[in-house]
Amino acid sequence: MILGKMKTNRRDFIKNMSALGILGVTYPLLSACGSKNGTEYLNEKITKIELFRYDINIPRYFSWGTWHNRQHLFIKISAGDFYGWTETPASKNNPDYKPTEWVAYLKQFKGLTIGEAQKLLASEQVLGSKRSLKMLESLDMGLLDLSGRIQNKSAVELLGLTGRNAVPGLYCILDKDEKKVREEAEKSIEQNLGHHMKFKMYGDETVDMKLLNTIRDVLGDEAVVISDVNKGYKKWESLDGLKSILNRFKENGLNAIEDPAHLKTKQWIELQKMVGDLTLIPDAPMRPAWKGINTMKAGMGRIYNLHPSTMGSFTQTAQLANKVKEIGAKVMIGDDSLVGPACSAWQQIAIGVGATWVEAIEKKEDSKIYLECLQSLATKKEANGYYSYNPAPGFGVEIDADRLKKVSELHIEV
C-alpha cells in the first residue's frame, strides 16, 4: 500500500513539475508560508523509526590509519504512510557494533510532530553544539526527505537550490599499494569515471609521487586528478618549504589538492597565491556548515569542499554553497565513503548548487547489496560518468525495505 501511494505521489509530482516548468520554479520551505495548507505537514507525527545495519568488509587506507570494515546505518523515518530515508557511517573496525547511542538519540523524536522534530534538531545545529555532526546531519536528511514526500516537493527545491545540470562523478582511490592503485584507475575507465580522479596521499612525498605517477600513467594527461592529504604534510618549517613540495606534485600532473597541511586562514590565502594554477581545496575549515559560513574567506582556494557527515545541516550547507559562489569560487561535494541513500541525496545537492564534481557516488563493490534492494532513484549515472537528476518528492530514493531487512546484519525498530 505504501509503495503504491508513493508511486502515485511521484506521478502527480512529475505532472505538476511539467505543468509549472521546473526550471522557472523555486519553492520556499512551506514552514515559511502563511497558509494553513502550507503548514499542515508540520503536524504529522513521526510514528516509526527503523535502523538497518549495512556492513562493508572492504579495506580503505588513509594517511592516519586503515578501515578494515565499516558499519553503516540506513534509517527509515515514517509518519503514517510516508517515510524518509537517511544513511550514516556509524562505526568502523567493529563487526560487533550495536547502535545503542543512535537508538537513544532517535528515540526522543518518535511521537513528535515533524514541526517539533525540526525545532529540536535546529536547536543543536549551532555553534558550540556537543551533538555528533553525523547524528544531526543524518536526521536532517531523513526529515527533509520525509517532509518533501508529504508536501509532494523535491528536497532540492525545498532547499531553494536551482541547479539542474549534470555533474561529473569523482572516482576515489583509497589505497597506497601501487598495483592496487593502478587496478583502481583502470576500473575508473571501465566505469566511465576516468575523467575525474581523486586519490589519497599519505604525507610521504616519495610514496605520494609514485601514486600520482601511476594514476597519470593510466589516465593520461586529460583527466582531472586531485588528492587529499588529510593535513598529512607536517615536516615543513615555512610556506616556502610546503610550496616546493606542492609544486613538485603540480609539475607531475596534480591539478588540485585538499587540506595539504594544518593551515591558518592567512596561510591558506598566501599558499594559494604561491602555488599558481595548482588549486587548493579547503575541507576541514568548512566544518560544520554553521562554522564554515563564518570562517571561510575568499582566496583560501579555488574550490571549497562540502564534506558529507561533517556539515551537520543540509539547509546551512546550501547557504554555505551560496556564499562560496558569491566570492567567485567553486564548490565540490565530497564523500564519507557513503554507499546507500545518502549518495543520491548528496548528488542532488551537488547538482542543485552547481558543484564542479561529486565524490559521493555509489561504489560498485561497497554498494552492491544496497543496489540489489534499490527500486528507483531520482539521480542517474549517465554513460559519460556524469550524474543527472529527475526531480521526485523528497530525495526520491525507493528501497525494498523487506529485502534490506533480510540482508542487514541488524534491524532495530526504535
TrEMBL record:
Coiled-coil segments: none
SUPFAM superfamilies found in the cross-reference section: Enolase C-terminal domain-like, Enolase N-terminal domain-like
MF terms (GO), sorted A to Z: metal ion binding; racemase and epimerase activity
Superkingdom to which the source organism belongs: Bacteria
InterPro entries: DgoD-like (IPR034593), Enolase-like_C_sf (IPR036849), Enolase-like_N (IPR029017), Enolase_C-like (IPR029065)
Swiss-Prot/TrEMBL keywords: Metal-binding
Database matches in Pfam families: MR_MLE_C
Domain Enolase C-terminal: 181-402
Stated family: Belongs to the mandelate racemase/muconate lactonizing enzyme family.
Protein name, as recorded: Enolase C-terminal domain-containing protein
Organism field: Polaribacter aquimarinus
